[in-house]
Amino acid sequence: MSTRYYPLYIKGNPQLRVFLPNFWMKLFKPKFSIPSNEVHFIVSTEMTKHDVKNYLVKIYNVPVLDVRTKIVMGKFKRDPGEGYIVKEDDYKVAYVTLPVNCKFEFPKIFPEDKVKSAMEDLKKEDVVYEKYLERKKKNWDRPGISLWFGV
Predict the structure, then answer these.
(1) How far is the C-alpha of 38 from the C-alpha of 61, rounded, in Å?
(2) Is the pLDDT of residue 14 over 90?
(3) Quick check: pTM over 0.85?
(4) Inter-residue contact 43 to 23 (CB < 8 Å)
(5) In degrees, to the nearest 5, what angle opens at C-alpha 48 toward C-alphas 45 and 77?
């Protein structure tokens, strides 16, 4: 990964500097339905509302009416092995409102035919797993011995 620190400019040398923002934005689909002119992003916690708006307008040429942000607290989980409690990192969510004439639709990443074929493959794998469980039940009195030793 490249670093954001650039060598000092010395007079006479060419200035080969490209300034990129140290921010990132991740588009995510909310669980509930939202208006077609609203988009949700998970953004860097250092970004402000003005940074989000400038990022979208200057880099992607997206017209933005309003930006609202919210910091979401990370979930607390118990470690399955050791049992201690672990907290996930907090993150910031940006709710971006576009003009009324701009509509945003989530892209369809997976074509329908590929989804159907993947579901068929999963069903076949379920059948194979059921057969495995039946064989395992048949050899219940032989714990610790692999099924390929079966009689």
Answers:
(1) 16
(2) no
(3) no
(4) yes
(5) 25
